[in-house]
UniProtKB/TrEMBL annotation:
Top-level taxon in the UniProt lineage: Bacteria
Pfam families referenced in this protein's UniProt entry, alphabetically: DEAD
Keywords: ATP-binding, Helicase, Hydrolase, Nucleotide-binding
Alphabetical list of InterPro entries matching this protein: DEAD/DEAH_box_helicase_dom, Helicase_ATP-bd, P-loop_NTPase
Protein name (Swiss-Prot/TrEMBL): RAD3-like DEAD/DEAH box helicase
The organism of origin for this protein: Roseateles saccharophilus (Pseudomonas saccharophila)
Domain Helicase ATP-binding: 125-444
Length: 1173
């Protein structure tokens, strides 16, 4: 990433905008204090940490040089020329980057002269000979896996060149597709080809096993590797397999005792059917992956032909098993013909060593080791540092059982065991704990792996020299510190876009870039006189990389360490007030190293030894909002806000000590409440506690999802207000109480500086112990009523805590990270971890569901904009279109003339271009043609399921896209007949568009379209004298669920004015005119506009888009935003709206989460993204 600090700022501001939108606080002073609080490092996010990742010194040799090096300097001394050659060719066929040659003597060579690191070269030498175990401890991303794979490949190649040719080609027989009986994958091998485990790769967890399998497939199953094996190994394959709990299928292929038992025979047939189904799926999955890779590579080649600089496609085929290669995918294959390389985890190995069904694996391996003097067994452990403590002791015992099971503990066999491992966290060299590492290795392995020959028993002391740390390239800076900040600040100001001040990319040379590099070079004391800017740019990139390496190190040891950005900025720029922005500019210049070689830039290559920078950004899902409350001069003041649960007391501005309480808010108006667990002291003096509820249910059930389910007897809600409630749920009450802020006790009465008068919520009689009774159905401040929501339609209360759940936090971060990587042109990938499998599974589902929901919301609003732009262009061409109609009539083309005239008439009737008819976006219920409307068409273009977040739900028994005909380049529905299956499927998908559209247009929260400042729903196609008043009425009708398509209830037909919902009638009363006349007029007007019986049809509405200079008004009482004054009163609480606007919509959009996302999509190259989870 070019601009990591700007990217961090962008993610943080995005999250803050979400909090301001979803958790809006009406109290301006507390809202401002929360903003300050959340920006403090350690509250919502820590400061950004920069870690310089050192480059490691490369060997002076290429891999193919092992063919010709002298015995003294050759890591494969003692190997034949043929073995060395085969090893190099195989290693360059997937493990290391290589390319084909035209020389039959050497089939592969290193690509671009890539050489192995010195620690990889050293591990090759240690692992290729007995008695010299190796544990590589270089840093993350330094090629540790390649380090232990190299000696394994060398040993396999040395043996494989002598294997006899298979009796028949090893191409698979697809028994799983044709109904045949099970057949072993290796049935065609020559019987003299030894079948045994040559190496076992052990991992502490399955996730690491999966990652290793992708590497093994690339190493052993690439087309290039197959060509090498065909040529050097006589057509043999190196077989490998993953043996974990997920490997199909359990049980014996041939039971040693129950082979005649009928029950066993039936069970065997079921297992064969299950295996056949799994393998058939694997075959199809691999075919799809290869097809995807081929098409992706074709796109890469086309881009290169256009002159674009693009990297190679990262092939997906290696993420899935290939049944036509060397991977064994069934337990029966591995039990009967043990793989050369076995990958498993500790738990599975413990099981395999004691079960009868796996005994053939160990028996065959032991027999091979005893029979062949040149047979060696590799024990390879990855992430060695994770094996510690009591569990580590169990692993030690397990490995010694394995050694004994294979007979490698005996004299004369001990030298056949070769031990390799890796760890990025074991202390080495002069680090604290380095001596403990040597002790750890001695105690872990004892003398195993250290025997150099038959007569050598080995020694545990030899493990002291087994650690291979790698040689770091240390960058040295020459500039004098502190640096002047201004040249680096100028880099940011010149290239940053938007309010986030983020630099997405710099891909072209410009005068501004040349000037910035020249200015920075002078600050760094780099010679500029008489030199080309391209050469100066290379020096600048190298120097800023060295400066970052200097600033990101431990002052005591000098070793690299992650360092807070503010500390780095102060190290480089002293106490300059612009040091943070200057550091951002310096990081941008460091990021140019990947770009200065572009043809459009400087065509210069930066040094490959420059250290890279790893970014650590820590965000948290806040546990709520806490603070103290007091009353002063009739006003309620909220002070000392914090997100830390468990804080007890804070001193207010009046000097008095008060207890922290948890704050709760109304999602509709932002009114604040106090909430918490009730103490068991009695209703008259209940204490409100901030402790987490139901602690006994942790960790199986997390506490951040339980508030809506709590009972009134467990949870209290206090409203710090003496106002009369605007609305009260059925049989609910708000009873006067006084909150003693010294101890958070609710009293029947009280007075004094610690007392806060207000009202406590009381559930209906008999409901006090009912789940969900703790929260009121209506907000007493704004009157928002959720009491008529059906079960499963969301929480039946507008009151919410300020908690952000893990799933929502993960989805927000993943979405913004994807957006950030997309706009920079990088491949978007992310991994979300959790402490438990249940939470991880729930997080994956929630991320997928929530992203799908957000994406559909963005799609709807962005398509409204797109249709508006297209309509504006067409309206500008009306005269031209009418002239074309006349020309078509004159030329006798009646059909074309009539079709175009219909379109002209529709445009004239539809009004101005700023009002978009929803009928242009939503699928009609009674279609007249097969055309896809804009919203569905966009789903088809993106390949996104229009209904199901997981993307797998079928519609009328088939995949959703099967009802759409994509031939001819323009997708269309397959049918317009609403009675056939295709028509029913079409109607089902059309119906699902409506709840989402309703939610976007009429949500009672700050995610409603009008709250974003983008636009609002309208009853009229163009501005008419009563449009604003009608649109105010429409919003009230939406609040009353009297719009078709809402997911809460079906609107009832209205035959007389008095049948309007109560909310509409109260609004009519607030307008100040005769209620019956007003309601009667509204009913008639709705009918004239096509909304019969008072039910508003979504496809009969328009969306009026406003520009960024349009005014807006906020209700002082409840905080609702209005983009027009309507009747001059608030559409929610009916209080008078301000006469003067609160501002322009541009400011409103900047503070709204959804509006910010839409602005990015329209301006900054962001896109509506699909995310696969």
């Amino acid at each position: 990433m070019l601009d990591p600090i700007g990217g961090f700022n962008r993610i943080r501001e995005f999250w803050l905008s979400y909090l301001d939108t979803a958790f809006r606080i009406r109290d301006a002073s507390l809202a401002s204090a929360r903003q300050v609080l959340l920006r403090e490092p350690g509250t919502l996010a820590t400061d950004l940490f920069l870690e310089v990742v050192p480059r490691y010194r490369q060997s002076q040799y290429l891999l193919e040089d092992v063919r010709s090096l002298s015995e003294a300097s050759n890591p494969l001394r003692g190997f034949s020329y043929e073995a060395r050659r085969a090893f190099a060719e195989l290693a360059l066929s997937g493990l290391f980057p290589g390319e084909d040659t035209d020389d039959p003597e050497m089939l592969r060579r290193s690509r671009r002269g890539v050489r192995p690191y010195t620690h990889q070269w050293n591990m090759l030498e240690r692992g290729a000979h007995p008695g010299t175990p190796g544990i590589v401890t270089s840093g993350t991303g330094s090629g540790k896996t390649e380090s232990f794979m190299l000696p394994l490949l060398a040993a396999l190649s040395a043996e494989a060149i002598h294997w006899p040719k298979p009796r028949r080609p090893l191409s698979p027989e697809r028994w799983f597709d044709d109904g045949s009986d099970f057949r072993l994958r290796r049935a065609n091998e020559h019987p003299d080809r030894p079948r045994a485990v040559r190496a076992i790769l052990l991992y502490p967890m399955n996730a690491l096993v999966e990652d290793q399998m992708a590497r093994l497939r690339r190493t052993f199953d690439s087309p290039e590797a197959h060509r090498v094996m065909d040529s050097r190994f006589h057509g043999n394959r190196i077989f490998f397999g993953r043996y974990t709990g997920d490997t199909p299928v359990t049980g014996h292929l041939e039971h040693p005792r129950l082979y005649d038992d009928d029950g066993e025979k039936r069970s065997l047939e079921r297992r064969k059917e299950k295996l056949a189904a799994r393998m058939a799926d694997m075959w199809k999955g691999q075919a799809l992956a290869r097809d995807h890779d081929q098409r992706a590579q074709e796109r890469v080649e086309q881009a290169r032909q256009r002159g674009e600089v693009v990297g190679d496609h990262d092939e997906t085929r290696y993420m899935f098993p290939a049944l036509d290669g060397g991977e064994l995918v069934s337990r029966w294959d591995m039990q009967s013909t043990p793989p050369d390389v076995l990958v498993t985890n500790m738990s599975m190995l413990a099981t395999m060593l004691v079960r009868e069904v796996e005994s053939p694996i160990w028996d065959a391996t032991r027999d091979w080791l005893e029979r062949d003097d040149d047979a060696y067994f590799y024990l390879i452990l990855d992430e060695l540092h994770l094996i510690r403590g009591s569990a580590g002791s169990e692993v030690v015992g397990l490995l010694r059982s394995l050694v004994a099971r294979l007979g490698l503990h005996r004299d004369g066999m001990r030298h056949k065991l070769r031990v390799l491992g890796s760890s990025a966290s074991l202390p080495i060299g002069e680090e604290a704990g380095a001596e403990d590492t040597a002790t750890y290795l001695r105690q872990f392995f004892a003398s195993f792996g250290t025997s150099s020959g038959k007569g050598d028993a080995g020694s545990a002391d030899r493990w002291a020299g087994a650690v291979v740390p790698g040689d770091q390239e240390i960058a040295v800076a020459s500039a004098r510190l502190p640096l002047a900040a201004s040249p680096f600040v100028a880099v940011v100001h010149k290239f940053a876009d938007g309010p986030d001040r983020f630099v997405a990319s710099i891909d072209r040379r410009s005068n501004e870039l040349d000037e910035a590099i020249q200015a920075v070079a002078e600050t760094l004391a780099i010679q500029t006189s008489g030199r080309d800017t391209a050469d100066i740019a290379v020096d600048v990139v190298g120097e800023v990389a060295a400066l970052l390496a200097y600033a990101c190190r431990d002052s005591a040891t000098g070793r690299p360490r992650a360092t807070a950005a503010d500390v780095v900025a102060e190290s480089l720029f002293g106490h300059s007030p612009d040091r943070r922005i200057a550091l951002q500019g310096l990081c941008i210049l460091r990021g140019l190293s990947d770009r200065i070689g572009l043809k459009a830039m400087y065509e210069k290559v930066a040094a490959s030894t420059l250290p890279s920078v790893r970014i650590h950004a820590f965000f948290r899902s806040t546990d709520g909002l806490f603070g103290t409350v007091r009353r002063e001069d009739g006003n309620y003041l909220y002070e000392s806000p914090t997100v830390e649960r468990g804080m007890t007391h804070a001193k207010g501005k009046d000097g008095l000590l008060r207890r922290f309480v948890e704050l709760v808010y109304c999602e509709a108006c932002g009114e604040l409440f106090v909430g918490g667990r009730r103490s068991p002291d009695g209703a008259a003096s209940s204490e409100i506690l901030t402790t987490a509820p139901n602690l006994e249910e942790l960790p199986e059930r997390t506490s951040d999802t339980l508030y809506e389910d709590m009972a009134h007897v467990d949870y209290a809600v206090f409203w710090p207000s003496t106002r009369e409630p605007r609305a009260v749920g059925k049989l609910e009450q708000w009873r006067p109480r006084v909150l003693d802020t010294r101890n958070s006790v609710l009293l029947a009465s009280g007075d004094g500086p610690w007392s806060v008068p207000g009202q406590v919520f009381a559930a209906p009689p008999g409901h006090e112990r009912k789940a969900g009774s703790a929260l009121p159905k209506c907000c007493p401040s704004c009157g928002t009523d959720y009491g008529k929501r059906k079960p499963g339609m969301g929480v039946a209360s507008p009151l919410r805590s300020f908690r952000i759940g893990f799933a929502k936090a993960s989805q927000l971060l993943a979405t913004e990270l994807f957006s950030l990587l997309h706009v920079t042109g990088s491949a978007a990938k992310s991994i979300v971890f959790s402490d438990s499998r249940q939470d991880a599974a729930r997080a994956a589902l929630d991320i997928e569901r929530r992203h799908h929901q957000d994406m559909r919301r963005q799609l709807l609003v962005s398509e409204i904009r797109n249709v508006s732009l297209a309509r504006g262009e067409q309206l500008a061409r009306l005269d031209e279109m009418q002239a074309e109609v006349d020309r078509l009539w004159a030329s006798g083309k009646r059909k074309q003339a009539m079709d175009l005239q219909d379109r002209v008439d529709q445009l004239k009737a539809a009004g101005d271009g700023s009002r978009v008819p929803l009928s242009d976006l939503l699928e009609p219920r009674s279609p007249r043609d097969t055309e896809l409307k804009a919203l569905m068409r966009r789903h088809v273009e993106l390949g996104v399921h229009p209904i199901d977040p997981a993307g797998i739900d079928v519609v009328c028994g088939k995949p959703w896209h099967s009802w759409i005909d994509g031939r001819g380049g323009t997708p269309r529905w397959r049918s317009i007949d609403v009675n056939d299956t295709a028509g029913v499927a079409r109607a089902a998908m059309a119906d699902e568009q409506r709840p989402l559209t309703y939610e976007v247009l009429f949500s009672k929260t700050y995610f409603a379209l009008e709250e974003t400042g983008v636009g609002y729903p309208s009853l009229t196609a163009s501005q008419e004298p009563d449009s604003d008043q009608l649109d105010a009425l429409l919003r009230v009708i939406g609040d009353s669920y009297a719009v078709e398509g809402n997911r809460y209830r079906d609107p009832a037909p209205i035959s007389s004015p008095r049948e309007f919902p109560g909310r509409v009638k109260r609004f009519a009363e607030a307008t100040g005119e005769d209620v019956d006349r007003r309601l009667s007029g509204w009913l008639d007007r709705l009918g004239q506009l096509g909304h019969m019986d008072g039910i508003v049809r979504l496809d009969g509405l328009h969306v009026h888009l406003v520009d960024e200079h349009a005014p807006w008004w906020r209700c002082d009482a409840c905080g609702r935003v209005h983009l027009h004054r309507g009747f001059g009163i608030c559409t929610r609480c009916h209080e008078q709206l301000p006469q003067s606007p609160n501002g322009k919509t541009a400011a409103l959009r900047r503070g709204n989460f959804l509006a910010r996302r839409l602005t990015r999509i329209g301006q900054n190259g962001d896109a509506v993204m699909t995310v696969a989870v």
